[in-house]
Amino acid sequence: MPTTDGLFPTFFLSGFECSTFDWKDVGRRDLTAEIQHNGHADEDYAFLRSLGIAVAREGIPWPLIDRGGGDYDFSCIDTFLAAQRRHAILPIWDLCHYGYPAGLDPLSDAFVERFAAFARAAARYVAERAHHGPLFFTPMNEPTFWGYMGGEWAWSAPFGTSADYRRRFTTALARADIAAVKTIRADFPDARMVHIDPLIWVVPPRNRPDLAEAAHRESYDDAYLAWDVISGLRCPELGGSPEILDIIGLNNYSFGQMEYREQGPHAALEPGDDRIRPLCDLIEEAWRKYRRPCIVAETSGLKGGRPDWLNDIVVEGLAAIRRGVDLHGLCLFPAIDMPDWHNGQWLNNGIADVRPLPDGTLMRVPYLPYVECLHRWQRKLNRVTSLDNDPFDAAVDLADIRRAADEMNPSPDADWH
Question: Is the keyword Hydrolase in the record (predicted)?
Answer without folding.
Answer: yes
